[in-house]
Design a protein that fits this description.
Length: about 45
Amino acid sequence: MIPDLSALTTANERVYNYAMLGYCLGAAGLTIVLSALAVSGVV
C-alpha cells in the first residue's frame, strides 16, 4: 500500500510539474504572438 501511495504522489507531482511548465511556455508563446501581432498592426 505504501509503495502505491508513494508512486501515486510521484506521478501527481510529475503531472503537476509538466502542467506548470506547459502553462509557462503557453503564456510565453501567447505573449510573443500578441507582441508580433501588435508590431504587425502598428507597422
